[in-house]
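Exercise: predict the structure of this protein bound to copper (II) ion.
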Amino acid sequence: MSQTESHDDGHHGLMVKNKKLLMWLFLGSDCMFFGTLISTHLIYRKLHPEEFDPTQLFSLELTSFSTFILLMSSFLMALAVSAMHKGEMKSFRRNVIGVIFFGLIFLGCQVYEFAHFMHEGLNLDTGTFGSTFYLMTGTHGVHVAVGVFWLISMLFYSQSGKMEAHKSAIDVEAAGLYWHFVDIVWIVIFTVVYLIEFIA
Amino acid sequence: MSTTHTTEVINPSVHNDLADLKPEISDLGLRRPDHSKNVIIDWMTTVDHKKIGLMYGAMALFFLLVGGFEALVIRTQLMVPENDLISAQRYNQLFTMHGTTMIFLAIMPLNAAFFNFLVPLQIGARDVAFPRINAFSLWAFVAGALVINFGWLLQALEMFGLFTASGATAGMNDFVPAMGWFGYAPITSTEFTGAGTDFWIMGLQILGVASLSASLNFIVTIINMRAPGMKMMRLPVFTWMTLIVSLLIIFAFPAITVALIQLMFDRVFGTNFFSVGGGGQPILWQHLFWIFGHPEVYILVLPAMGIVSEVLPTFARKPLFGYAIVVFSGAVIGFLGFAVWSHHMFTTGLGKIATAAFSLLTMAIAVPTGVKIFNWVGTLWGGQIRFHAPMIFAIGFVWMFMMGGFSGIMHSSAPADAQQQDSYFVIAHFHYVAIGGILLAIVSGIYYWLPKMIGKMWQGNLNIWVGIFTVVGLNITFFPMHFLGLLGQPRRTHTYLSGFGWESYNMVCTIGSYILAFGVLLLVVDIVRCFRSKQLAGNDPWDARTLEWATSSPPKVYNFAATPIVNARDGFWADKYGPENRKLGEVDESHGIHMPSQSWMPMIASAGFIPLGLGLSLMQAGVPFMGYVAILGLVIIALGISLWALEGPGGYHLHPKKESN
Ligand code: HEM
Ligand SMILES: [Cu+2]
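Solution:
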């Protein structure tokens, strides 16, 4: 987020730089966060199997498409990180624009999906399914939105010419870790919330 | 650190290395609030871990007194049967705010005060890894404390006729939280409680952000910022416990964060997480709360164990007995702490297998706890014991904490717990661990480290009276509660009838609570006297063992003129008494010391939490325009963080004069 904080990165070990370690730890904590949201959903799903039949509502085509888009954005993110390491600002910017674009497509799909579901009668207060589904996927959406906001600020910042490989690579790497994590969480949600419904 | 500059006493008011420096200009082109002559600006924008620690401490002591006052009113109400000093509703508000205040606004920030002040010093670092995030954690804590206590503010305004819930604010009745610190569903639903519950939800959420960011910072600091030679197994035990507690916080807090979000959604947007009508299960709240709640009790107590593990060796003049085992037991306690939450729910009907498993695991957790106690006793064994104030309280901790542990093991047995659950027996248990354990250890830490923090030495022997009044008071207050519990007096009940044999016990408890309160008051007096003391502490008033004592009292902004090279566990002790090859070395830093610049941004960003928290709470109560206030809060936070990123870390170089260590 910010640049390397004031300090030389410690004296010891230095296996992982401060900012990256901070991000790893945050993501560890975030795992518990999503873990709690997803288990709430699964517990209530098991408790009230008859309450709601999501197979009528879910569109596997749409969600598979947005999942694929998110996966591809992770790919571009990896390219952006590597470009930053090499100091290739042009390629960095191109890839970041790609990530932002794909992130926005994903968010667009989610907004469309929510609007559609609500139209079909699945609301926040529709039993426990509506509650757990919207809170879980919505929280994930907020994570994506924060990531997009972060990348957009980086893009503008890189325009100012103040971004240099040796200083900023670590910031981009941290953003990359975050982005990949959000992607992985989505794959878990897609599997245990969407796909499983069609198997059983 | 050679002998030329270790013992010199430096007057805290004259250190002028900074006087001739000009403020830096940030990347945004703004002047940074560095080296400000204005004391208030200097403290509000500081990124110095020592100042941040002192602010945590001051605020926490304030809330300790607030929480203590609430407890005294509770005890006064219960002094005699069918007392009507306060209404049932007021009673509920008081025990709710007492518990919440003590846990989140007194003990946790007191621990944070020690983390902040000590950890960088103990590992030989200049500051934490992210100084501005550290300042952010402090101010977010302040914002959360304000939001939680907002109800009392309204209450005060109402008393003076300046506020009534009517017209636009008609929905704002019941504005002091009154559902217990555990906030069990479904009493937290809009059907049963009002705006107070919303303040509580939002306040706790903000405090969670503060704790989380602080913990991330400390883990990175401890892993990455250690001085050369400070291997993990040379870390002072207090630093080890900080590391373990920080890990517990980042893994345990998400559970309550999610639970609070779900509750907020239930209240504001009508979801059904905990509402039975829509298929929700109130028991889910209990699980999520205690998955956080049990690790939380170790989050509270492990730092206390760390303090005691520093104090006992110093005053027994012996290394800690079984260092590795003490560290390892701490880790095991932390780990097992995640696997015992359901012992708070034995009477909810979990099923035989689950109950038996949680019962066994709870018993198992007493093993590493016992190991630690034996190691402390082993440390004392054969030592040259000096009964200074820190030692008196540390020994008090070992003894009193053990008493709490015993009752803990008693209700780890599910059948026994069925009798004790929700009775005064549980109150006795957790006050022995909380006051007899944690608070005594914290007082020990205050007596031990305050001279280091402010550079002045304690005067007189008021400390003995503090010890006598607190320990005697706490035993008179809480020991009879064991019997009260077994005789069936329920907790969280505003009064009781006579004729159950509870009267005299309750009377004794109330008298004890006043004795305890008097002890705490004496402590405050003693602290004030220490601040006004003329006697300087010197670097090392206790002949101690760890690195913080190798530098001046109070330490300079840069902590160490030259970063120490550590060659032993208890490095400073080895420097004083050890063989040549174990003494401290010095890193060559002739190029000067890099110091971080001060910043307004952490405070601005966390100030946004106040409109966000209050806005969301009042929106629930139907007060108009509050949604916009909440959005304003979000905007302030986003703006603060963006400017923070853009201003850059800044920094300047210092060349400390050689003779001032
Ligand atoms: C030997 C270690 C311990 C064991 C075996 C243990 C066991 C228990 C059990 C079984 C309960 C549930 C009692 C009931 O509600 O019926 C309980 C409650 C409690 N314990 Fe402990 N405990 C231990 C240490 C601690 C420590 C170190 C702390 C705090 C620092 C603590 C704080 C609490 C609190 C606050 C409660 C009551 C929570 C509430 O209902 O509001 N315990 N303990
Ligand atoms: Cu517990």
